Amino acid sequence: MASIDIKGFGGVAPQTVDSNLHPTVVHEDTYKYKDIKFDIEYGMANDIASTDRNTGNIDIKDLRDIEAIKASLFNLFSTLPGQKLLNPYYGLNLASYCFDPVTQITADHIARTIIIEVPKHEPRIKITNLSVVGDVANGAYEITFGLYIPDYEADVINIKGIINSDRFKFIS
């Protein structure tokens, strides 16, 4: 598998501008995980206070900690194997199960796929519990799972989502 090592993202010193000679510094240890949002939104560079918004210090909004992990899981659940060129084994293709009859057996297949494949692609988490319940009327499955993140100082996080023939989406 190909990998890219980018050394410049370790930490960037803030730059001063005429209107703000002492910019706020956000230390790297204030969050564990960080990712970018693919539906690009603007945020403030280095989390500069709202009083400094007119200085032009904008950047792409990022996702941190639990939101970064949820985005990773969303990508994993929504990607078809072979769709990611540099990692053709990435993806679970859970929507394909929605074309099978909505039964307990299919729900069990979805659960087994999640339990086996998620740790291979998302080593930051441990699945503590998992429930997959079929919704015959809508041809969908509700997936509820508990996540424990060893590097993140929090209890088990419960997440719900729905998978149907269109895609996977989180509920609340």
Task: Fill in the keyword field for this structure.
4-stranded antiparallel sheet, Nuclear Transport Factor 2, Chain: A, two-stranded antiparallel ribbon, 8 strands, single chain, elongated, alpha+beta, 172 residues, 2 helices
Brief account:
It is built from 2 helices and 8 strands, in the order ββββααββββ. A hairpin with a 4-residue loop joins strand 7 (157-163) and strand 8. The protein has helices spanning 66-78, 104-121; strands spanning 34-36, 42-44, 58-60, 62-64, 126-135, 140-148, 157-163, 168-171.
Structure report:
This protein has 2 helices and 8 strands; from the N terminus they run ββββααββββ. The protein is elongated, with a radius of gyration of 20 Å. It is of the alpha+beta class and 172 residues long.
Q: Helix and strand layout, with pairings?
A:
Layout: E1 34-36, E2 42-44, E3 58-60, E4 62-64, H1 66-78, H2 104-121, E5 126-135, E6 140-148, E7 157-163, E8 168-171
Antiparallel strand pairs: 1-4, 2-3, 5-6, 6-7, 7-8
| CATH fold label of the domain at 94-171 | Nuclear Transport Factor 2, Chain: A
What are the secondary-structure elements, in order, as H or E?
EEEEHHEEEE
- Give the end-to-end Cα distance, rounded to a whole number of Å: 34 Å
- Kindly provide the name of the CATH class of the domain at 94-171: Alpha Beta
Order of strands, widest sheet: 5-6-7-8
Low-pLDDT runs: 48-53
Give the oligomer, counting copies of the same chain as homo and different chains as hetero: single chain
Strand content: 15-25%
Helix content: 10-25%
The whole-angstrom Rg is 20 Å
At CATH level 2, the architecture of the domain at 94-171 is: Roll
| Shape designation | elongated
Number of strands: 8
Structural class: alpha+beta
What is the number of helical segments per DSSP (H or I, 4+ residues)? 2
Largest sheet: 4 strands, antiparallel
Mean pLDDT: 77
